[in-house]
C-alpha cells in the first residue's frame, strides 16, 4: 500500500512543500529512503523504526520504500521523521480515519517516540498560511508557540507519537494553538543602566542618539580605555522599541537558525549580536554544511557589534560590503544559493593606530605614518564609505571622569529617538521600510528634500572632502535623521552641517 504524506522543508529562509511517499509491500524486510536526503534524513530510518516500536505500535516486517518528492530539492535535517512514521502507520492500517491526509507533518522523533523541535517551524507555518487551504500543521510541542504566532495557520502541537495517533484516530481532541504576539511584548523592558553611567562624552552620545534614531552605522575610534566598548554597548538602552512586524521578521530568522524556544518563541527586543574577532567566517556570514543564517542575519533590525573591527579577518570585513549595501546576504552552497536578510546597524570600534595613541592628548603615538596607513587600509575605502557616522572618542581626563556630569538619562533620549523613528516609519510605510538608513539610492531625493542653504553647503563639502556618491547619500540620510529628531520635514543647512561633523575619517589626513 502507498501513503502520500504532506510535509515541509526549508530552503534558505523559505519553506517548501514536500510529499513523503511511503510504500509498504510484501517481500524481504527492508527500509529504503530515496530523494536527495542528507545524512540526518538517512538516519531517520533508525529513529522511526525504534520510535514506532517503543510507542507500542507495530513496525511491519516488510519492504518499505520512502521517496521524498520533488527529487531535485535537497532534503536536510531530521524533520521528516514524523511524516515517514505517519506514512508507515497509515500503510499498515494503524490509523483508522483519513484525517492525516488533511495535515502537514514536521518533527524529529526520539527513540522513545517523543517529538523534538526542528528549525524553521515559524517559516513553515507562514508558508502554509499563505496558501491557506485549511490544512492543519502538526508540529512538535516545542515548536508550537512560534508556529502559533502566525495568523490563519492551524497549528496542532503534540508531544509524542502516541498522542498524535490518538488525535488522528479521533480519540483525542487538540485545539489549534493560537499565540497572541502582544503578550510577549510586555516582557520587553529597556535597561538604561549603562547609558546612564557614562560621564561626559556629550558629542559621542549625541552621535549615538542620531544613529539609534535612524539605524545608521557607527564607527567609534579612540585610544585604549577611552570608553568605546562602553559607549557602543550603551546603545541598546536608547534604541526605539521593536515593532510587531519587525519582531516577526526577526523571529523568523531565529526560527530558521533553530534559536527559538517554547519560552521565547518571539524576539521582542532589538538583537545585539557580538561576534568575537576570532569567529569563523561561516558563523558571521552564514552558511556551513547545513546552511544557517549567520551573525549578520541574526542582527537584523538590531545591532551587529564588531568590537576591535580591525582585528577581524579580512574576508569577514570584505563580506560585510554586500549586506551593508543590499541589506541581504547571499550564501552560496554547492547545491543552491540562499538569500538571508542582513538588515542590521553596524556598530564598530577601533584604535586609531597600531599603538592606539594616535591623536591622544597625553600619550605620544610611536607609530610611523606608514604603519598607520597600512593599519587603516584594512578599513578599505568601500567599507569606510558604508559607515555613516565616524566618531572620535577622546580619552577623558581624571577631572572629567570625576565630574558629576552624566548628561540626559537614557529614558529621555530613548523617547526622542522613538518619536523620530515613528516619523520615519510613517513616511516610509509605502515602501515597507522602517528607518532612514534603509532608504536606497533613488529614493533619497524623494524622502530627503534639502533646502537651498543646505544644498549649497553640501556642494561645498562635496568638493572639499572629495566624497563618493555613496558617502554623499549617506550624509543626506543622516541629515534626514537629525531633522527628524527636531521634527522638521525639510533638511536645512544646520542639519547638513551637523551631519558633516560625523565624517571624521574623511576629513583627517595622516
Ligand atoms: N565616559 C566614561 N564614563 C564612565 N566610565 C567610563 C567612561 N569611559 C570609560 N569608562 C570606563 O573605563 C573602562 C574602559 O572603557 P572601555 O572598555 O569602554 O574602553 P575602550 O575604549 O573600549 O578600550 P579598549 O580600546 O582597550 O578596548 C571601563 O571600565 C569603562 O566603564
Ligand atoms: Mg574596548
Ligand atoms: Zn600609534
Task: Describe what you observe in this structure.
The mean pLDDT is about 90. The chain contains 24 helices and 18 strands. Helix content is about 40%, strand content about 15%. The chain is an alpha/beta fold and about 500 residues long. Helix 9 packs across helix 22 (about 470-485) and helix 21 packs parallel to helix 23 (about 495-500). The protein has two domains: about 1-170, Ribosomal Protein S5, domain 2, CATH 3.30.230.10; about 195-430, Rossmann fold. The strands form five sheets. The chain has a seven-stranded mixed beta sheet with strand order 3-4-2-1-5-8-9. A five-stranded parallel beta sheet has the order 11-14-17-10-18. A two-stranded antiparallel sheet has the order 6-7. A hairpin with a 5-residue loop joins strand 6 and strand 7. The structure holds adenosine-5'-triphosphate, magnesium ion (MG) and zinc ion. Adenosine-5'-triphosphate binds near residues 197, 200, 201, 230 and 396. Adenosine-5'-triphosphate binds near residues 200 and 396.
CATH class of the largest domain: Alpha Beta
Strand content: 15-25%
Relevant CATH superfamily of the largest domain: P-loop containing nucleotide triphosphate hydrolases
- Attached small molecules: adenosine-5'-triphosphate, magnesium ion, zinc ion
CATH architecture of the largest domain: 3-Layer(aba) Sandwich
Radius of gyration: 27 Å
Low-confidence stretches: none
Secondary-structure map:
Elements: E1 2-11, E2 14-25, E3 30-34, H1 39-42, H2 44-54, E4 63-69, H3 81-91, E5 103-105, E6 108-109, E7 115-116, H4 121-131, E8 136-140, H5 144-148, E9 154-158, H6 161-168, H7 182-185, H8 193-196, H9 202-214, E10 218-221, H10 228-234, H11 244-256, E11 272-273, H12 281-285, E12 286-287, E13 292-293, H13 295-298, E14 303-306, H14 314-319, H15 321-326, E15 328-332, E16 337-341, E17 345-350, H16 369-377, H17 381-385, E18 389-392, H18 398-402, H19 410-428, H20 443-447, H21 452-465, H22 469-486, H23 493-501, H24 504-507
Parallel strand pairs: 1-5, 3-4, 5-8, 8-9, 10-17, 10-18, 11-14, 14-17
Antiparallel strand pairs: 1-2, 2-4, 6-7, 12-13, 15-16
Helix pairs in contact: 2-3, 9-19, 9-22, 19-22, 21-23, 22-23
The protein binds adenosine-5'-triphosphate, magnesium ion and zinc ion (ZN).
